[in-house]
Amino acid sequence: MFRKPDLEILTTTLWEYPSQHYGSKMQGNQDYRGATPSYVIWNLLKRYTREGDTVLDPMCGSGTTIDVCADLKRKAIGFDLRPIRVDIQQADARFLPIKKETVDFVFMDPPYSTHLEYSDDTRCLGKLDTRDGSYYEAMEKVFGEMFRVLKDRRYVAVYVSDSFKKGKPFSAIGFELYARLSKLFRPVDIVAVVRHNKTLKRNHWHTSAVDGNYFLRGFNYLLIFKKEIGPKH
Ligand SMILES: C[S@@+](CC[C@H](N)C(=O)[O-])C[C@H]1O[C@@H](n2cnc3c(N)ncnc32)[C@H](O)[C@@H]1O
Prior knowledge:
alpha/beta, Rossmann fold, 8-stranded mixed β-sheet, 5 helices, 8 strands, globular, binds S-adenosylmethionine
């Protein structure tokens, strides 16, 4: 029988774990489209936060960040445009209803432009295109909010993938978001997280990628940055 390995702090820039969840319970919900593998958040919180710290996820989805925070005794604040749990508050990530410099860490797994459909809400970033720039413009606003609410000398991590759809131009979302985050924060590192998506192995995906001579997304970027505004006077 398959037994999940114990979690450990990963030390290279290539992360992989054979399950969406660790331990005997689920963190977040694997049926939520686009849910984040929980070991990614666990590793970030272990490195960049301490017990009692306040962790913000402005696009909380199925609440994976909240559940990992509970396991590690961090305080979680989760927002989403379309909250699906009572412990997630409703807000547009471009206008967060929290005071400046009040959180110790921000994790965010945003829509990767129009990659997945999340809701009918017209403010959903999953409706915005990379090619007309509207997606990047909106993401810059979200980054501005993350900068505003984060304490000085604390960290943010953004989990994102590039986007390719057959017949459409390739969008290097990881590079574009890295450049925009660099305007506000100091770059710390880039981790490649292996994607374990069983549907990618299904035959029609595989044969289309071979026949069409394109690649399926095999990794996500984890972009890690630090806020540094220097000494106060
Ligand atoms: C990739 S999912 C997040 C998955 C989540 N980390 C989890 O593990 O379940 C992206 C989320 O962004 C939310 N979203 C999209 N536009 C938003 C906006 N303007 N403000 C807040 N949330 C937004 C979507 O509703 C969706 O839940």
